[in-house]
């Protein structure tokens, strides 16, 4: 029912997850899969009819970089930058022998440097510099490659993240372009974060550009210069954000966390 009436093809894929944010990775260096339609990507990401994922990425050759990342949200549309997807595609590039322990690759928001552990399952990904952090009432709004809304709450375990996130994402200010909505609770020794993602239109287990946005917004709010955010816990695991902050601009921002192959296979579309 979700399938489109086009010539069938068998697509080899690799399923990765980074702190529970999960992705379908497709090696498109031969450009065989460039014509995937919105409906097909949505089908592949569907958890009941397809492989199941929060997003899908095509890895492609680039003349000036190790590779290029094309990211689609689960709804089938091209997304803005995906931090955990970026970390997973680096692990994938190492697994298929394109890179070794370091890389420079191109994504929708520009060039990214990343380093990867020897075992290939922990990636530190450099994110774009950030200066502009706005406020919307008590929330922070900033772009870390993707647009994010950051709201501090209490009793985050009990919050209906789907309902509240959906309401904010679709309010008059944000409904046209959408926004990713992060709820955060300061637990003393760590931040606990839950995110409603645009393009998935649901809560995900982690959002890399989202935890980056939280770390930067909280650093600005605390008016501290420095290098590390508090430890970060999300539904799918633990993450870390590092940065240089001079009181105005955040540079050398690194999003650090796990990136693991879950399984591989092929699927007919
Ligand atoms: N999960 C992603 C965010 C994807 C952004 C996407 N939801 C959009 O707004 O286009 C991350 O780890 O950063």
From TrEMBL:
The keyword Ribonucleoprotein does not apply. One of its GO terms (cellular component) is cytosol. The record marks 148, 197 as: Could be important to modulate the pK values of the two catalytic cysteine residues. Its EC number is 5.1.1.7. GO terms for biological process: lysine biosynthetic process via diaminopimelate. It comes from the Bacteria. It catalyses: (2S,6S)-2,6-diaminopimelate = meso-2,6-diaminopimelate. It is found in: Cytoplasm. GO terms for molecular function: diaminopimelate epimerase activity. Pathway: Amino-acid biosynthesis; L-lysine biosynthesis via DAP pathway; DL-2,6-diaminopimelate from LL-2,6-diaminopimelate: step 1/1. The keyword Cytoplasm applies. Catalyzes the stereoinversion of LL-2,6-diaminopimelate (L,L-DAP) to meso-diaminopimelate (meso-DAP), a precursor of L-lysine and an essential component of the bacterial peptidoglycan. Belongs to the diaminopimelate epimerase family. NCBIfam families: DapF. This is Diaminopimelate epimerase. The gene is dapF.
């Amino acid at each position: 029912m979700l399938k489109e009436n086009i010539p069938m093809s068998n697509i080899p894929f690799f399923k990765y997850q980074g702190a529970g944010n999960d992705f379908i990775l497709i090696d498109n260096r031969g450009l065989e899969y460039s014509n995937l339609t919105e409906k097909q990507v949505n089908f592949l990401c569907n958890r009941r009819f397809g492989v199941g994922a929060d997003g899908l990425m095509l890895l492609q050759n680039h003349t000036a970089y190790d590779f290029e990342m094309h990211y689609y949200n689960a709804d089938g549309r091209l997304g803005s930058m995906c931090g955990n997807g970026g970390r997973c595609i680096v692990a994938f590039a190492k697994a298929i022998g394109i890179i070794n322990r370091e890389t420079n690759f191109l994504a929708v928001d520009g060039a990214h440097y990343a380093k990867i552990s020897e075992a290939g399952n922990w990636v530190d990904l450099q994110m774009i510099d950030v200066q502009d952090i706005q406020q919307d009432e008590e929330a922070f709004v900033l772009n870390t490659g993707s647009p994010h809304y950051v709201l501090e709450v209490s009793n985050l375990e009990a919050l209906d993240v789907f309902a509240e996130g959906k309401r904010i994402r679709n309010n008059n200010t944000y409904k046209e372009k959408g926004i990713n909505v992060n709820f955060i609770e300061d637990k003393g020794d760590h931040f606990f974060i839950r995110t409603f993602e645009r393009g998935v239109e649901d809560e995900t287990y982690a959002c890399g550009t989202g935890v980056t946005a939280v770390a930067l917004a909280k650093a600005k709010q605390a008016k501290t210069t420095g290098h590390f955010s508090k430890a970060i816990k999300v539904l799918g695991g633990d993450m870390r954000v590092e940065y240089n902050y001079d009181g105005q601009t955040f540079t050398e921002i690194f999003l650090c966390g796990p990136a693991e192959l879950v399984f591989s296979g092929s699927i007919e579309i």
